[in-house]
Amino acid sequence: MNLELLPLSVGIGLAVSLLFTEAFGIAAGGMIVPGYLALALANPMDVAATVAAGFITFIIVHAISAFVVVYGRRRTVLMILFGYLTGMLLRTLPGVAIDGPEIHVVGYIIPGLIAIWLDRQGVVETLAAMTTASIVVRLVLVAVVGAELGT
């Protein structure tokens, strides 16, 4: 079976995200986030760096909103922009890989999407739904693709 993993993972992630939203009323950190994170679950430090970038972004935009009126579309764009910048900063930091594998932030807009949902629905709810949905997507990928999934 010769399937491209990213489109398959994102598609499964979209379905799982929709099911989570409909069944539990909570979003899994953005519609495409579980699909991307499911592929990165073999590298937990990458997932941790991505979530950290999203959390840092959430804090930055929250701090900015204390001084500037930030709501609606402006808030969403700032979350995506600072998520991108935070991810790029974490990618370029020297010494991130300390006697181990190099750490990568997953995607370019994923940290911003995570930050948006941390802001909209809360930290615990978002992290719990995102983690669970990513694991479900990974399990479905293993069932569909099997050994080709790799690590």
Topology summary:
Elements lengths: L4 H20 L8 H8 L3 H21 L7 H21 L17 H12 L1 H23 L6
Distance between the termini: 17 Å
Radius of gyration: 16 Å
**Principal-axis shape:** globular
Query: How many helices?
Result: 6
List the secondary-structure elements in sequence, H or E: HHHHHH
Total number of beta strands? 0
Overall mean pLDDT: 89
Counting structural domains, the number is 1
Q: Helix fraction?
A: 55-70%
Largest sheet: none
> What low-confidence regions span 5 or more consecutive residues with pLDDT below 50?
none
Strand residue percentage? under 5%
| Structural category | mainly alpha
Descriptive account of the structure:
By secondary structure, the protein is mainly alpha-helical. The protein has one domain. The protein is 70% helix and 0% strand. It is built from 6 helices and no strands. It has helices spanning 5-24, 33-40, 44-64, 72-92, 110-121, 123-145. The protein is globular.
Give a quick rundown of the structure:
By secondary structure, the chain is mainly α. The chain contains six helices and no strands.
Keywords:
single chain; 151 residues; mainly alpha
